Fold these 3 entries.
Entry 1:
Amino acid sequence: MSEQQEISLSILKKRWLKFKTLKRGYYSFIIIISLYVLSWFLPVLINNRALVVSYEGELYFPVFSGYYAGSTFDQDVPGEAVYRQLDAKWEAEDSDNWLLLPPYPYSPYEDITVTGNKMFDAPSRTHWLGTDNTGRDVFARLCYAFNISISFALILSSLNYLIGILIGGSMGYFGGKFDLFFQRVIEIWSSLPMLFVIIIISSIIRPSFFLLIFIYTIVNWIGMTYLMRAEFYREKSKDYVAAALSMGQTNFKVMFKHILPNAMVPIITFFPFAVVGGITALVSLDYLGFGMPPPTPSWGQMLDVGLSNIPKWWMVFAPVSAQFVTLIMVVFIGEAVREAFDPKVYSRLR
Amino acid sequence: MSNNKLVDVKNLSVHFPVHGGVFSKRVATVKAVDGISFSIGKKQIVGMVGESGCGKTTVGRAMINILRHVSPDVEIGGSIEYHFDDEIVDFAKLSSGEMRKYRSRVQMIFQDPYASLNPRMTVAQIISEPLQLHTKMNAQEQRERVGWLLDKVGLQPEQARRFPHEFSGGQRQRIGIARALATNPDLIICDEPVSALDVSIQAQVINLMMDLQEEFNVSYLFIAHDLSVVEHISDKIAVMYLGDMAEFGNAHDVYHHPRHPYSKALLSAVPLPDPSRKNRDRIVLKGDVPTPLNKPSGCAFRTRCPVAEPSCAESKPVFEQQVKDHFVACPIVKGA
């Protein structure tokens, strides 16, 4: 039985196996995916709040339950407790109280207002990539920004694809007046100067993560419609679609069960490049100051601050190398996907 | 006779408008099918022959009402009356929503076995799709039915989990036949089902189709351009020329005693595996088939007809019964 299954692989499975043989792309894929999954656990890995505090026989979980004033643990600091100092103090006193800090005990938001933080600290064993102009830890900000960048790019690309597939697919499938109408809409829409539109909107409304995604989606869904329209237009005249229709399948099912799986090649091969586009879009908006509201950690904002303090090399080096490594790995994935989907290899199946 | 009819096509016409210019005005009409009439009896095989581009395939697609999906502005005239056991339905008048419940009654086998099976679906998924749509079978019953159908068309039930690209052309066409038979249809439209196959495979597939026709009590509209194949399997033969019906009658009559000059020319071109008869009278037609965009006036065939008369240009010849059950659209040969 297993032998039977081995012969009868779907095209997608064959392409996945081919993708796995392209080591550069495959390892980049593994690394990016694991880093992204890991980045969702950042609050317990990189955080100034302790994971567990045992104080006078009671347990506290500041990472999960949030703010505790310094006075809760009999610490003489204004505002929130500083857990690093608390740890050092209890250690020195050899007291029964104890706490467990995350592996990297700095948060991307704590600046010089917290005692002990200095501006422009050079990279050291405590601050791996130094601190920035407000005393925030660069490494912590870099990691949080990675999560935000990738999430932004993934959500943006998926939304663009969803709208692009729905509208482009319907244009190609139904044709006629519907197609004509949307072609004109797209022509008008694509002639708007989009960067200005975004800058104007961001200067009126204070942008947030989802507002930025919304604005970018409104602008960027067009790209996918061209590809999907062409794919659906080509596929709908094939006999397997006629066969599905002649057995009474609904238009919706024909579009998404029959045609879409056969139109997946441009969707999948362009996806990594769409993600690259999404990451760079957010970086450039943040760099220009129209992106995420401060103090959200973001590569563009870090780059902006770093360039105005260029002698502090770590502040430029960190975001630039992070971007470089991330983008090049996503491009490697894209290249490998493209090669795995090369129709020449399985020309009989096309 | 009339109560034995399954489909009665009357004066069917399929016109595709051609748009052009700045305002997409209608500039011309492709008259792919221009008023044809014929009928198919229950458990009957009707062969339909004609040159490429004469509208055979369009007739087939009009009969299952799927033309509108590819060209939404197509104009369909006349009637395609199906006499099912319980009701009489005119497919030419139904919307695609109303059509849905009759879809299981009429199925189609396509010309290109490589394009007609979705490459992303396994054979089991392909054949069980009509079962999901038209029956209330559960997954287990569907699997059994698929295995049974595969067995009927000469494939192994274990092959159900494979993908179409793992089969040869002849095997793929068998899968197409199994899919068409899945819902026990009354009529199967076979659109040149063997023309994409090797000659040796053609014979196998045709014999299979004939066996299945008897077993499933189904009618075929067998569209082909190979006359000897059509004569071999058909009860009746319809000859088409440029969107018009030239001749329609019992297979033996049309094949051995053709009346229409086009049918005569067509039949004289059938290759005979007999060297002693190589000097038989071949009627060689001059010129090319006119374009359906701008058909000749009167009889469409008059520009190439060996027996044409000036009167042929005046009016379209009447398609009438000249001998018993033998319809011909040529007044010149009437009474001959």
Note: Residues 1-5 of chain A have pLDDT under 50 and may be disordered.
Entry 2:
Amino acid sequence: MAIPTPPVAPLRRRTRIHEVIIQGLLFLCGLISIFVTTGIIYELSKEAYLFFGYQQWLPAHKPLVADIAPEQTLFEVGTQGPALEVGSHYRIGDEIMLLEAVDGALVQMQRGAQQTEPIAHRAGLTLSREVNPNLLEFLTGTAWEPHNGRFGILPLLNSTLIVSSIAILVALPLGLATAIYLSEYATPTARSRLKPILEILAGVPTVVYGFFALTFMTPLLRAIFGSGVVEIYNMASAGIVVGILILPFVSTVSEDALSAVPRSLREAAYGLGATRLETAIQIVLPAAFSGIAAAVILAASRAIGETMVVAIAAGAGPNFTFNPFKAAETMTGHIARISGGDLSYDSLDYNSIFAVGLMLFLMTLVLNIISQRIVRRFREVYE
Amino acid sequence: MQNSTYAIETKDLAIFYGAFQAVGNVNLEIEHHKITAIIGPSGCGKSTVLRAFNRMNELIPSVSTKGVVLFNGHNIYERDVDPVEVRRHVGMVFQKPNPFPKSIYENIAWGARINGYTGNMDELVESALRGAALWDEVHDKLDQSGTSLSGGQQQRLCIARAIAVKPDIILMDEPCSALDPIATLRIEELMYDLAREYTIIIVTHNMQQAARVSDYTAFFSLSEDGKRTGQLMEYGDTKTIFTNPGRKITEDYITGRFG
Amino acid sequence: MSQAPSKFADASLQVNRRHVSGKLWLTIFQVATLIGVVALTVLLLTILNDSFGYVAVENKVDPDSLAVNGIPLDAQDKETLMQTLRANISAGLYARFERDQPFAERDAANVYALIQEFVISPRILESWTLYDSLFIREQISETLERDFPNAELQFRNWLSWNFVRAQQSSYPEIAGVRTAILGSLWTIGIAIAFSLPVGVGAAVYLQEYAQDNQINRIIQTNINNLAGVPSIIYGMLGLAIFVRAFGLFTSGIAFGAVDPATANGRTILSAGLTLGLLVLPLIIINAQEAIKAVPNSLREASFGLGATRWETIWAHVLPNALPGILTGSILAVSRAIGETAPLIVIGASTFIQVDPSGPFSKFTTLPIQIFQWTTRPQGAYHHLAAAASLVLLVMLLTLNATAILLRNRSRRSY
């Protein structure tokens, strides 16, 4: 039987230009996320760096006792106001000086510091002291008043942590109990009714939660604990409402973690005569522990970054206090308030919120990375 | 250019998953317009070898291929060969019927269209469906989704889809494993008809099927050195392999003593 | 064989105790679950409570006296409304309105709003919540007689049709959310226009093209991390990049679209792009899931026919992933609609009476408006905030319902 063999096929590679272009464009789309991260880190760091280099002259309340000549390095100043600091820069008029020694009212200055011209000054002119934010003060100072030369982030950090802790205290037990109920007890019907409610709770915009905190939670707290104890703006109200806000998140992710525990483990426990509770608490919960831990850490990261509830309900103005019923501004609340006003670029305010923002970014990033690590390890165990 | 003697010819074909060698040392010549069956125990790399014939393996990132696969005398693994062109000439039917979730008509027309078919599409669809013995069943519902057909019809639709682009070779990877015996029979009958125009290579775990439909049979098995590398144990015309196998391992397999 | 003494305690007694503690804990779990439901209920009730209630109103002019030929004010057409307006305000004020926007261009609703604001000029002296209105009605009447003898007690629905279509105003009695709704729609529109193509593109790249190498792993990890960055940080990025660095473009100056003397980068365009960046990781992750769900057998079938990668993606992967991509994107968008913090940071203008006219307009959005009204001390503004919250929730509910419908309708079998 004669069958014609098919012709040889031309298999040569064709250059498909549009395929290459499309792939390139798609790669660029993927790369944009890298640009975003780079942009965030670059902008936050740049402005934070400018913040730490920001030169401010604050009145030192030290008038010159007598006229001084351009070359005179020893002279007398008034003694009221806070003490002078050796090693700091001071300014009179256009001239900047470096304080080398101080003895009562007598000061020894290096004249014409920072490329200024030594000039004569008349009696009565007062000294201004140079104030620079430095990292140590930023991390340990207990007052945040940038315009008064006080750059401690602790008041903002403290209230952020208090609000987030309250939120976790609310969301963790409730969220975990909800997750256990939904995953281990609830009938499919009950679950199908409850889960949408949690989804709606998760979908409510945060600004509405802020309204809720101010018009419901705060009056409730004031009614319970007395309006003398609970201020109108307070961290407790904000914290509880942030807790409700992250509750669906904790319960959903925890439930996923619980559901991922293999059935065989539960059956093994039931087979030994364990009750449902014993199985849930002693077998399933520990097996899902890392997933739940990841959920809680991620929820904490959300609580720290949550802005609107605290901006509305926690109060304006930094306040270093551990009393949750007092008003105290959080990091996010501070950024929102300062940037909400008429903010001019390159001002101290502008730079300072980026320093706070950098701190916020790093905190949430660390929490996110930890939680991702945990999740990855968790996956390896069960997949 | 001269047409070569064989449709497919492999020389020292070896396929790796990462560092693990799944198949090694395959030397095989496949005749034009014949049905060649590849049989062997599961996990011996039958499907992997089949997928090497149209470079489907490279869709799995970790797979690498060594050796030579000549298609009509051309090594399809040469640098300047386009896998897209190879697959246009070496079509494939898969284990599970996988029609596109589009209309029956579109299932067939799409492949032809991307391959630059400019003729009458209605005619092509009809002839492809007739070629796959499906026309009578679906001619009045061409706009229905391909996924609405029964399993056997879906698989014939996939065959029609493959022949619509006029390949030289059709690879069939256990095409009947998801089908009931009646649907299987129809596909086997269809394969006879198709062999007049196409070279068919079929992987099957069903030895009766191989014995029934194929002209040649290649038996693969794991190497006996414990490395679990699939190897071509014996190759020849089907009658000889099934009645008078040359090696003991082949005989053990086809008589059901292992596998 | 003698039986060894059992070391187990009395079994039935113990099982009983274990069951009791099991029931106790079940109750605790149920109560905890219920608290979530209660929280949502209370939240909604709080908003409803502030959206309706009695108000003590004092009108400068009785609206009934403004009827012309027996046609009440509400039913008058534009011409009649203009006559009414001209008859009741000074010529100078009328000329100023003409200058702001010629009457020929204004519609009836606009003229009606002017009459409300400048002629009738109702002033709300005091307002009550729905709860108070229902349960301490007598006290309200007493307060009214004692403190506001000239005022009239009205039951006010703060979430009226007028509220939805009226512009922002400094008087709570006539303020509305039209400008804010339009601002929200504009910003979201720009956010989608930017993030949907880019997000889906990135997802396609990561799922269909990317090999498992360093750079692609970095991109993937990076996207996961971006999803966890607080929204206010995106606001700061938007402020530094879109508003400031690219201010020339986002303000529209570079395109000659605006007056360079007054324009700045705090525009709808900047806001939309910022929200776009914010939802980008969510859209990418959702789209990746949708693309992952497309069975591999379809890709193989397509490649087996000699299709190229892009032909496969375009003809099979994307169409089949589309419902999932859309559902995920709608959910991401509903997150963006509710976002407030980033827009505060990039400087949404809070008091805007002019509808946004394009990407270079100053803007306010619904959440921003809620925030502004919530933070005002006067009680009347809280009612506005509540009503605006209801509008926002209805918008979100509509979106989510669409997403769910889409998800259910396009569930297909492969």
Note: The first strand of chain A starts at residue 56 and ends at 63.
Entry 3:
Amino acid sequence: MSDTPPVLKIAALKKSVPGGRVLFENLNLELQAGEFVAIMGESGVGKSTFLNLIAGLDQADAGAIAIDGVDLAGLNDDARTLLRRDRIGFVFQAFHILPHLTLGQNVALPLVLQQAPGEEALTKAREMMEAVGLGGRAEDYPRQLSGGELQRVAIARALVHRPGLLLADEPTGNLDPETATRVLAVFADQVRRSGAAAVLVTHSEVAAAVADRTLTLARSGLVERHGR
Amino acid sequence: MAAKGAGLAARWMILGEWRAHPMRVVTAGVAIAIGVALGLAVHLVNASALSEFSRAVSTVNGDAELQVRSAAPAGFDEQLYPRLARLPGVSAASPVIELKATTGRADEQITVLGLDVLRAAAVTPSLLGRPVAAEGEGAHGPTNDAPFDEDAIFLSEGALEGRAVGQVIVLTAGGRTARFRIAGVAAGIGEGRKVAVLDIAAAQWRLGEIGRLQRIDLKLAEGADETRMRDVIAAALPADAQLVTRDSEARRSDSLSRAYRVNLDMLALMALLTGGFLVYSAQSLSVARRRPQFALLRVLGVRRKALLAQVLVEGISVGLVGGLAGLTLGFGLASGALRLLGGDLGGGYFGDTRPELVFSPLAGLVFLVLGLLTAIVGSLAPAREAARAQPAVALKNAGDAVDPRVSPPIWPAVVLLVAGGAAALAPAVGGIPLLGYASMALLLAGGVAAMPWIARTLLGPVQHLSLRWAAVDLAFKRLWGAPSQAAVALCGIVASTSLMVAMAVMVSSFRGSVDDWLQQLLPADLYMRVDGAGVGGGFDPKAQAALAATPGVATIVFQKTTSLMLAADQPPLAIVVRPMRGPEAANRPPVIGRELTPPPGQTPVWVSEPAAWLYGWKPGQQIVLPIAGAQPFFVVGVWRDYSRQHGAVTLDAADYTRLTGDQWRTEASVDVAEGRSSNEVMEALRAKLPSDVAPRVTFAEPATLRAFALRIFDRSFAVTYGLEAIAILVGLAGVAATVSAQTLARTKEFGMLRHLGVTQRQIVAMLVTEGALLGAVGVVAGIGLGLVMSQVLIHVVNPQSFHWTMETKLPWALLAGVAVALVASAAGTALLAGRRALSADAVRAVREDW
């Protein structure tokens, strides 16, 4: 048995919304490097909240979350921020590409935040853009891109700094089915190439299908989905 | 290294933001530049003028280490001179006659110095004249006896302008006229100063100053302890003489115009303060718009401190660039103002001097730092907001960060307002109403801090209404639903409106009070005055009798104005001599409050408001004035005087003559007999004037005098109006920029409304309603706050600065105009910005990422 801790380990997690309604409790999950899970669930069940908890952007009522063996509960805001910077990549439903930066700068941002020299960061960003099918567009601005292209930029940004854990929140929720399929293919391909563990939160069966396994989020925690 | 990475990211973010919204950065930078420029310009003009004035004073004083000066223009007994000259520790003493003289040239006044050449050579050699050969004189030139010649006079370069050595100059001083031959130049006297130097014996003999001296210049023996010598000399002085040092002279020059200068400085800084609000509103809007972007950065691993630093760096950059531009602009403004308005910026303190501009690197640095601090303070709250936001919530971009249902806290505003009220009750610090200004700043900050609560309270009742007109309904609901955005816009409106209203009410109250006072002070039909009349000059008793007997004169009241120096570091006090008892006293200046009856045997005096304030005099108090030696006087009342900021004391004419024997008078007020015209009587009076006085007598009717006085008032306040106008324009620009930025940031919302079937016209109507509502709430709050601040100006800052009180007079028309202009400006800006925002494609607007 390896001594390497799991990339993500969640134990007995509980979260309520203001007002006291319990979103979920006794939630457990363990992910090793290269594991790719999809999490499905009804609207309002707390899928995005779950991702925010993993990223250290929200606080749980009970339970523990550890990334690469580091317990988030023991970290202050600055330390959680640094952990996020170094070990997590994020893809959002609403792309969140900064409008006043070039596409290259948007993608290079995580590397720059990790103190990589500007030119080196931009070179890696161009390579990553090439990998997601946007080669030669590093100097363009976001306003010149379609939704599918913007999401591919977001995927490039999430992976450019080789994070150990990738979190994706409805990455195809704003795209038409055809574009969504193409973006999902790029996403799954890049996740597997990177060797990172990935958590994909989605409504879509089609999107969930690109993951290795699918879990359903319910009040009682995560339940394995069968019959795929 | 971590800082390096965050630095590059921050640079990308800042430059990207500036590229995307250059006008917002430029507007904030220009506001800082204007504030710094005005502050620096006013400071440089004041400093240059003061330096020039001090130079002028030291020019006339020569290089004397210590001086003894007479308290009154009449001088002191010359017997003081040998007593001081013999004091151990005094190595040399130089007696001086110092008079103001007219020359016959229109408006020319020359300072005449009578010196003992041999003594002055040892104490103030720079004042001595140098004989020069006149054209046509023999090869041997002037004789060395010239300085002792009773006809010889030496003119400074300034006085020699348009004259030549060898010519004759006619001087009139103290009612005496004498002719002198220009024998040479007093080259040691500074450029532009008009000074004439002659032998002291000639001055005493020919200008009627026998037995009197105006000053004694002293040189101390080597090694003498100056502090001890000051005490020794002061102890040897009679009541009508004062010891003056270079320090006290500098303080006197400074106190002459200090309050005026500090007021202008403060007013100029108001523009900087308004600029600070502009930076605040620009940064707040920018932060509000970028909230999701900052949230993304937090998700990507940017720490709170780094976001705080980024927004602060944006503010500092704006402050630095604006400040540097402000320094250049300020220097240019100061140079132009000195040329156009003179060293006192129209205040009338330094006569007609046109000083050279002196740049002070320290002052430049101070104003640059002030500009930077303003930008930093303006950015601090938005920066904290950016850093504090919860990324998970902000990423949703769910609208205003403040929940409209939560009542905004009012206690910070209450604390600031109470502190402002308390500061208003504090006394002046060193003669300057520093805490009065602090009170204004605290009240302003309190008023602005109260805006979210006030806006909620004022808008609360209307938000529940369901209006049939969709545009207005949407406008009400939007203002209610985005409270922090409404508060940011209101801050700018309230800050500029309240400052404008406070200044306008103060100036209107001051002008109205001066006008009322002039009406009371000038009840006669005709006034006459002898220009340039010194001690013993003007109308003698014979001339007074002749004038009183002039046909058409119903009554004529003579008066005299002279001066007394009570303290070496204060400007002189005016002594007004006029009938204060009997039928001739009917038109005397009105007394504030109750007038006391002096105890038997005591001489009454009426002191002006500034004199009472400056010297701490109260009715019922006995004071000593150096009139004919040291005389005790009883203060019977205080009268309002807006014309002499450094104080005046009125004596009854009979008392003055009894004490001094001086029966000469320099002014008169005339009531014209019924059936006669003022012009007719004026001509009759002119015909009765003694020939030596006639050319120097001016006549004026009260309406002319009142208009003249108000013209001087308006000239003094011209710079005040100018600075105020600029502060208002900066404020209005802020309001326009805020409303415009808020509107343009809502393109997506307008796109959505268009999708829902709202017409462009309805959206524009909604924006105009929002702008007008914001303007109206801001104007109501701004006028309320401005009225409170005006009371601090009227009852604290003005009395502490200038030592006079006034009644509040509201400029209703101006207030109404300001209200309409502000509401129209806010609505108009919203209209223009709305049209621009609506020009974007509605479909594209809704699919924009953010």
Note: Chain B has a mean pLDDT of 80.
